[in-house]
Write a structure and sequence with these properties.
By secondary structure, this protein is α/β, with parallel strands linked by helices. 40% of the residues lie in helices and 17% in strands. It is built from 15 helices and twelve strands. The strands form three sheets. The chain has a seven-stranded mixed beta sheet, sandwiched between helices. A three-stranded antiparallel beta sheet has the order 9-10-12.
C-alpha cells in the first residue's frame, strides 16, 4: 500500500506536529511494538491497567491511562470527575447531563479551537462550560469568582493556541483548586514536559501520544488516584466510542520509553538547521525571514517569513497546489507572515521549499 494507490499527494510538513497531517512520523521501534501488539491477543482490561501501572512508574505518578487521543482524554476526564467513580454514571448518559455538579471552570482565553473547540470536548464529557476572566486576562481571583457549589473541576489548557498574556500559571491554578478542594485538569496535549505539571500539583494531565512523544494515534492521561481509575471506568461509557487498539497501546509505551531516553530535537539543533534555511529564504526577493521562538515559550524555533508583493494567504494556497504539497503554519497570515516549522522537515525538503517559493514569486520579481 502506498500514497499513489490512494491517489494522494506527497506532503512536506512545515506546519509542525498537526493532526490535519497525521501529526508525527514514528520510529522503527514504535512500529515493531505496534506489530507485536497487533499480532497477539490480550485481556484488554488487564492491558489497560498494566500498561498504566508501567507508565505511572516511569512518569512518577499514581496512575496512567492510555486513551485514543488527547481530545478523548479531555472528554473522559470531564466525565470521570462528574461521575466520580459511579458505574451508573458511566452507563447512563443522562446522568452526565443531569448531574448537579458538572460545571467545568476554564479561563476564557483557554476556550480555544485547536481543530475542534475545547468546549465541545467538555460538553461531550457531560460538562457545562463556565468561563473565568476575559479573553485577554485571567487571574487567580477571576478563577475563584467563577467557582460555585456546582463546580466539578477546573480545566487549564497549556497550548500555543491560547492567549498567553495576563494569564495565570498552572501553579496558580493548582493553588485555587486546592483552596476549594477541586481537581485540576491540565490539557498539555502538545507539551514536551511529562513531569512538571503533575509535580506542580495538577490532578490529571493529558498528552497527545502522537505529538511531542512521536507515538501512534493515541493519548495519555496521568495523575492522581482515584481520578485516573475514574477515567479508566469511562471505557465502559463514553470511552467505548473512543477506544484504542492494542497495537497503538504497545506503540505508545515504546514511544514514551524512547522519549524518556532520547527526548526530542534540541533547540541548538533546530537553530543550527534553521540558519541555512533562513539565509536561502532571505535571498528570495519580497521575503524577509527571521528565526522566531514558539509564542508559548516552548524550546521550538521556526522560520518566520514576512511576505511582500503577494498576500500571505495566496502564497500559502500556492504552496499547497503542487506535489509535494507544502504545508506551513498559517496563524499569522492575516499579518502577512508565514511560519515554517522544521521539526519534521529534512534539509532536502527545505531546499524544495526555497525552490517552490522562488517559483511563486517569479512573476512578482519579473514585473
Amino acid at each position: 500500500m502506498n500514497a499513489d494507490k490512494l491517489g494522494l499527494k506527497e506532503v512536506i510538513n512545515a506546519s509542525g506536529k498537526m493532526t490535519i497531517l497525521g501529526v508525527s512520523t514514528v520510529s522503527q521501534d514504535v512500529i515493531d511494538a505496534q506489530i507485536y501488539g497487533g499480532n497477539h491477543f490480550f485481556e484488554m482490561e488487564e492491558l489497560m491497567i498494566h500498561s498504566g501501572k508501567y507508565l505511572a512508574n516511569l512518569l512518577r505518578v499514581d496512575d496512567a491511562q492510555i486513551v485514543a487521543s488527547a481530545s478523548a482524554g479531555i472528554a473522559q476526564s470531564v466525565a470521570a470527575l462528574i461521575g466520580r467513580g459511579s458505574v451508573a454514571h458511566a452507563y447512563h448518559p443522562y446522568c452526565q447531563q443531569t448531574a448537579a455538579i458538572r460545571e467545568i471552570v476554564i479561563p476564557k482565553g483557554h476556550n480555544v479551537d485547536y481543530g475542534t473547540p475545547v468546549e465541545v470536548m467538555i460538553a461531550q464529557g457531560g460538562g457545562k462550560v463556565v468561563e473565568a476572566g476575559y479573553a485577554n486576562m485571567c487571574s487567580p481571583e477571576h478563577l475563584e469568582m467563577a467557582i460555585t457549589p456546582n463546580t466539578a473541576a477546573i480545566l487549564y489548557v497549556k497550548s500555543h493556541h491560547c492567549v498567553q498574556k495576563s494569564m495565570l500559571s498552572v501553579k496558580e491554578s493548582v493553588s485555587v483548586a486546592q483552596k476549594f478542594g477541586l481537581p485540576l485538569i491540565v490539557d498539555a496535549a502538545a507539551e514536551e514536559d511529562l513531569f512538571s505539571y503533575t509535580e506542580a500539583g495538577a490532578d490529571l494531565v493529558i498528552y497527545s501520544g502522537a505529538k511531542a512523544l512521536s507515538g501512534p494515534s493515541s493519548g495519555l492521561v496521568i495523575g492522581k488516584s482515584p481520578y485516573v481509575s475514574w477515567v479508566r471506568l469511562q471505557g465502559k461509557g463514553i470511552g467505548r466510542s473512543m477506544k484504542i487498539g492494542k497495537d497503538n497501546i504497545f506503540g505508545l509505551v515504546a514511544a514514551i520509553e524512547a522519549y524518556l531516553t532520547t527526548g526530542t530535537e534540541s533547540a541548538e539543533s533546530m537553530l543550527q538547521r534553521l540558519e541555512p534555511f533562513i539565509q536561502g529564504l532571505n535571498e528570495i526577493p519580497h521575503l524577509t525571514a527571521a528565526i522566531a521562538q514558539d509564542p508559548a515559550g516552548r524550546e521550538i524555533y521556526r522560520a518566520s517569513v514576512e511576505v511582500h508583493g503577494k498576500s500571505a494567504r495566496e502564497v500559502i494556497a500556492l504552496l499547497k497546489e503542487k506535489s509535494p504539497a507544502i504545508y506551513t503554519r498559517e496563524y499569522q497570515a492575516n499579518k502577512g507572515i508565514i511560519e515554517f516549522d522544521i521539526r519534521m522537515v529534512t534539509g532536502q525538503q527545505m531546499q524544495k521549499i526555497i525552490e517552490r517559493l522562488k517559483e511563486v514569486f517569479q512573476d512578482v520579481t519579473n514585473t
